[in-house]
Amino acid sequence: MPGKSRHFGWIWAGGLALVLGLAACDQGTDEQASAPAEAPEIGAPAEDAGPADVVKAQDPGLIIDSSYITAATQIDGNRVQAADDEPHNWLAHGRTYSEQRYSPLDEINDTNVGGLGLAWSYDTGTIRGLEASPIVVDGIMFATGTWSKVYALNAKTGEELWTFDPKVPGEWARYACCDVVNRGVAVWKGRVYVASLDGRLFALDAATGNVVWQVDTIDRKTPYTITGAPRIINGNVIIGNGGAEYGVRGYITAYDAETGNQNWRFFTVPGDPEKPVEHPELEAAMKTWSTGGTEHKWWEVGGGGTAWDSMAYDPELNLIYVGTGNGAPWNRWVRSPGGGDNLYLSSILALNPDTGRMAWSYQTTPGDNWDYTATQHMILAELEIDGAARKVIMQAPKNGFFYVLDRETGELISADAYAKVTWAKGIDMETGRPIENEDLSYKDEAQAVFPGPGGAHNWYPMAFNPNTGLVYIPMHDQDFIYNNDPDYQFTEGEWNTGNSFSTFVEVYEGLGLDITAQQGTGRLKAWDPVVKQEVWTKDHVTVVNGGLLTTAGNLVFQGSGDGQFFAFNAQSGETLWSVNTKTGIIAPPVTYAVDGEQYIAVMAGWGGGGAATTFDPKLAHHEYGNDGRMLVFKLGGDPDVPQPDNYRPEIPEPPAQEASAEAIADGKKHYHRHCAVCHGLLAVGPYEIPDLRYSDPSMYDAYEDIVLEGILKDTGMASFADALDAEDVANVKAYIISEAWTYYDKQEDAKKAE
Ligand code: CA
Predict the structure, then answer these.
(1) Does residue 581 carry a pLDDT above 50?
(2) Catalytic position from the list 371, 627, 666, 714
(3) SS3 track for 94-117
(4) Which one of 394, 509, 665, 680 has the fewest beta carbons within 10 angstroms of its own beta carbon?
């Protein structure tokens, strides 16, 4: 049913799409059903979420009762370090502290993977993005879904043991750049740890889901969000946060796993220069930021540098590695007008996990100007380079270069483009700094640059297979039009990039580019980190696809945006198996075994950054909807995955257009400044958030109540009364009605033609 209207192509998918993410996105039809009737105001302290449902399920084959769960979940550092002694489990986020996402299990392998089928599925009842890596221990699975909800499941049967809902205020979605996602829990000594979208950290009783303690990790007046999975090192729960697009100051905090007491906090960027620095590492950082004598105060905007996803840990060196994010705003000419590298943006930090003191740092993108985060997945491995065994850390951050560093010293070993890169001509190995392409500076005029803010690789986890020696990268080639905003002013609670989005369409057309002709390509790339080049590449039909798992069975598993779930030969890249799950996949798979039988699990539910503004016509949700599910496969399972029952409806006849052309044009501008990041460019919405053209006619009468009065705030649609007035809203409505008529007419014509 999506007609030509859906074929906008890559500028959207690659440009604004991945870039804008789902900023300020309301939650649409993914009802926050358990949200309190009176959600707290943003800024008010969160209420205690209270007890979870009690354990209610028992599998006759494996008696999973409270005492069993408590005993099974006694995970500690020694156990994670010896994870290969219990290969049937997935004990930590990347299975091991090295975060290789490699499993020694090989019952499912390159000779028999064709016999894989569905063992069980669990319906999360959600239709937005699912990104979690489940933790699996002795037959119990812990995963997270939208709104930071936790699911404890019987890993053999899918039976629900308990669920936990932190009751995130729906309107907090306005502060989430990239969907209301969560990337998973940590399990430690009988407890499950999860961080909520609105910045709280919970310790739950693993047996029951009851809250043992919770702490607030943020200042509730500041638009922080947490989507990342906590890591637990030496008894410290370590968690960062996100929000750089809105203007926050990044930090990472360690809490005592037992008590929730704060042990240390590391700020990734300096604060007010008039005040003493919070820790010594900020003295060096302070020298790399400058107001240039202007009125701009980066510390009031926040500076960014949020550590919202990746960490890895080396127990021998006792160093935890943390990736930091982009600058706030993106545009360095308004962020730090006096220039400078702006430490520690876009960096890999090596910290002592007990004290928070920094051993070394490496900045991938000094003076970041493009939203080039270095929060992407980091992998620790031992590689033989030039005849010497090296303990390395590897990362493919957004900026398009694949980095190999000595993880003891931070020495740069190699940095080579793994994607199409035009912002820099390479990395100077003498200085370790990129050689920027001055021809593509967007200071004075808009420029199309590779990669875009969606990165050549975003958070989707990579995998490293020690048998093949290859790193597998879920990446995409995409560009973006960066456009210095001459009128930029900081706006609280909104996107602050220093780039102009409200005139995006005009800029694109002004550059003589054909919007509909632009296409990006999603790829799975096998990269040899020693030879420093790709070994094989698989192109996907969709641009944004899932994270990775590799196994001793010589396999790489990956889901795609069109709902396929693949097994590839890890050595050659040959496609050995695939199944149409009928739900787009972005999450990384994991594997485990129960009673000696190996399973492959993946969460299906497309979304995340860019979902709202990606017009990729091949995405599964155009045909099947986006019902979130945990899908678990085994040899001899059902070869078909049942079809979810959500379908996209038809566009109902819109109300008559009564507004002037000027009003519609004004509404288009407001829409693209405030609404498009969630509801879609040119009013073509994603599945996961209401496509406004499909609104029931009665909704048009409620625009003011929704947008200004906030009557749907509990479902995720906050009030925008601070940004829009009644006339603006009327004009936005006129613009939506205009677009709805265009598409309604096409729909009706198509029906007549059938
Ligand atoms: Ca960002």
Answers:
(1) yes
(2) 371
(3) CCCCCCCCEECCCCCCCCCHHHEE
(4) 509
**Phi/psi at 251 (nearest 5 deg)?**
-160, 165
Distance 88 CA to ligand 1 centre (A): 36
Note whether residue 551 is domain-resident.
no
Å from CA of 202 to ligand 1 middle = 25
d(CA 159, ligand 1 centre) in Å: 37
Beta-bridge mates of residue 580: 564
Q: d(Cα 750, Cα 674) in Å, to the nearest integer?
A: 32
CATH number, domain with residue 700: 1.10.760.10
Residue 386: Cβ-neighbour burial (10 angstroms; 0-12, 13-18, 19+): exposed
Taking phi over 0 as left and psi of -120 to 50 as alpha, with beta for the rest, 602 belongs to: beta
Q: What is the mean pLDDT of the chain?
A: 88
Question: By three-state DSSP, how is residue 75 classified?
Answer: coil
pLDDT higher for 722 or 288? 288
Confidence of residue 508 (pLDDT cuts 50, 70, 90): low
Q: How many independent structural domains does the chain possess? A: 1
C-alpha angle 539-543-544 in degrees, rounded to nearest 5: 115
> CA 738, CA 151: separation in Å to the nearest integer?
42
Residue 17's SS3 state is helix
Tell me the pLDDT band of 614, cut-offs 50, 70 and 90. low
Q: Which domain holds residue 745?
A: 10-39+503-517+649-754
- 479 CA → ligand 1 middle, Å: 15
Residue 612: the pLDDT is 58
Residue with tokens 């009003």: 663
Instruction: Give 368 Cα–ligand 1 centroid separation in angstroms.
Output: 11
Q: In this model, does residue 175 exceed pLDDT 90?
A: no
Is residue 30 assigned to a domain?
A: yes
Whole-prediction pTM:
0.86
Q: Would you call 745 a catalytic residue per the annotation? A: no
% of the chain beyond a pLDDT of 90: 71
Residue range 542-569: mean pLDDT, rounded: 97
Classify strands 327-328 and 303-304 as parallel, antiparallel or unpaired: antiparallel
| Distance (Å, whole) CA 51 – CA 46 | 15
C-alpha of residue 306 to centroid of ligand 1, in Å: 9
What is the 373 CA–ligand 1 centroid distance (Å)?
Answer: 6
Structural domain includes residue 110: no
Distance 346 CA to ligand 1 centre (A): 10
Nearest to 119 by CA among 642, 643, 551, 631: 631
Tell me the pLDDT tens digit for each residue of 412-470: 999 999 999 999 999 999 999 999 999 999 999 889 899 999 999 999 999 999 999 99
Cβ–Cβ < 8 Å for 678, 177: no
Measured CA to CA, the distance from residue 306 to residue 245 in angstroms comes to 10
What's the gap in Å between 67 CA and the centre of ligand 1?
Answer: 43
Distance from C-alpha of 516 to C-alpha of 682, rounded to nearest angstrom:
13
